[in-house]
Amino acid sequence: MAQDSVDLSCDYQFWMQKLSVWDQASTLETQQDTCLHLAQFQEFLRKMYEALKEMDSNTVIERFPTIGQLLAKACWNPFILAYDESQKILIWCLCCLINKEPQNSGQSKLNSWIQGVLSHILSALRFDKEVALFTQGLGYAPIDYYPGLLKNMVLSLASELRENHLNGFNTQRRMAPERVASLSRVCVPLITLTDVDPLVEALLICHGREPQEILQPEFFEAVNEAILLKKISLPMSAVVCLWLRHLPSLEKAMLHLFEKLISSERNCLRRIECFIKDSLLPQAACHPAIFRVVDEMFRCALLETDGALEIIATIQVFTQCFVEALEKESKQLRFALKTYFPYTSPSLGMVLLQDPQDIPRGHWLQTLKHISELLREAVEDQTHGSRGGPFESWFLFIHFGGWAEMVAEQLLMSAAEPPTALLWLLAFYYGPRDGRQQRAQTMVQVKAVLGHLLAMSRSSSLSAQDLQTVAGQGTDTDLRAPAQQLIRHLLLNFLLWAPGGHTIAWDVITLMAHTAEITHEIIGFLDQTLYRWNRLGIESPRSEKLARELLKELRTQV
What we know:
The chain is mostly helical. The chain is 73% helix and 0% strand. The chain has four domains: 1-124; 126-244, no CATH class; 265-331; 340-553, no CATH class.
């Protein structure tokens, strides 16, 4: 071992002198000498790498103070880069110099310098006259040679990784875990180079049999950051592998989405839908493990905001995008619905998963009654496999909240006695924490309000004051109480659908909007209504025009 160390030191001095000569001269003799020694220099680099990988970066610098100069001279020599595996081994050697946790500015500068050299190796497209002579002899134009070399090397490594993945337990043909880890480290400063995409994809998809993750955390972080900032574009299969293998990356992707939603205009579901689809999260959530993490973060946001309507609306839009992604992936569910919603009744989930567009409008009332029956049994009777209590049933229901929003319209557009099932469904949707007695009281209040509204719809004239009186039918003085919120939404629906509603709509809303919070609630309701009508193809030009006018006016005032 001591003799090997002495030999390496002697070789080091020899090659340092050689590189200095090659660097200072560009004569034909120098080029010939370089070509004659390429195989020997590559063997030296291989030995050097074997020694460097056993040391930490500080030890490397102490043992070989001029190692940076030697590697830099080699990296700027086009003949060395073009020869066999020299380029790859040079990258490995440079990565050994990187200090994972720099303690001072000197170490940070060294890391930055190394990243710059690595970037040069794989992305430089300019050539000196030496490479021109070399490539002309091979029949290539200089501008074509280097990109081709890079692509070939990347494709070769990607192919080797794919074979590694397929070989499974055939250890003789598998790539060593250390080498896979080294490749992931090499890619970190090069993630945004388009030509490196195949290698990044192969690293993400390649799964070893090791008990612990072998890819470097900084590799996952760099890839995730590049995806979030749209600096690279990878196949969905690679993105799914990234988020499955590195939970912090998935969590950061969700937080990135939350930040975009918070910084955007409030109560604009079309923009929210664009952000959600652009995040790639609905597509990736087709895998149950990813869906469960995403859904849990939505649950936390919902609980932290005490059931904020904006969070509920965002969950509904996300679920809609998720269901669309599921349908694109396969007409039949690859995974049982229970794997996505493990704490709720499978039969309830299957009914809610139906798209109202696929059900004739004449059957909507029947479907809503069936949903109400299943929910009520799950909440009050604890049957049908519900294990999570009322909250879990409500949390599932709000994912498909479009059904609840249809209830008010069905009640207002029918002259018949309001079905108890629909009254219960509304009371539960707006007050999931209420007990049976309080929910029954809300149902009585809502039924009374509906009776007044139906009577007013047959009147020849409507007044804002009369509607305000109807709004006061609830006994709650807290305007944020679930019953009051439900009654406000019934009134808004009435204004949109009643023949004379458009003449008093603004006066009624002015009386209702006591606070900025209620104003934002009304804006959110109108935006969500327009969004749902557009999605379901509901055509009502007068109602749509009124909703848009009210929305525009309210947004100018907040």
